[in-house]
Design brief:
71% helix, elongated, single chain, mainly alpha, de novo design (two linked rop proteins), 4 helices
Length: 112
């Protein structure tokens, strides 16, 4: 597996966007957003390093769950009107592209 696949630079963890959250969200929503985004990249990397296919699949599934969490975070950010719609649209597109790659990888791992 390509280690840059949905890596930290490709997950919807826009540090500039996170920095624009209100100060009272910096230790809650902002931290959760970063953790979820990092979890995607880190679980994919850890899974790729595992020797068993079942372990790899488990880590990819955890990454998928973190992508679902990111979707919820972006919806919350939208509902609270913390970022512009254009910023959110770009972040959603990034999350969606990564989610499609992860879903495809999960399908291949389940079908083989």
């Amino acid at each position: 597996m390509d280690r840059s696949f949905c890596g930290v630079g490709r997950t919807p963890c826009s540090r500039p966007a996170i920095r624009r959250l209100p100060p009272d969200e910096r230790f809650s929503l902002a931290a959760q957003w970063r953790r979820a985004a990092y979890s995607v990249a880190l679980n994919l990397a850890e899974g790729a390093a595992r020797t068993s296919r079942a372990n790899f699949r488990r880590h990819v599934d955890i990454a998928r769950g973190s992508l679902d969490e990111l979707e919820s975070i972006l919806e919350l950010v939208r509902a609270l009107d913390y970022l512009s719609e254009s910023e959110l649209q770009a972040l959603r597109a990034s999350r969606s592209n990564c989610a499609k790659m992860v879903a495809g990888l999960l399908r291949r791992l389940r079908d083989d």
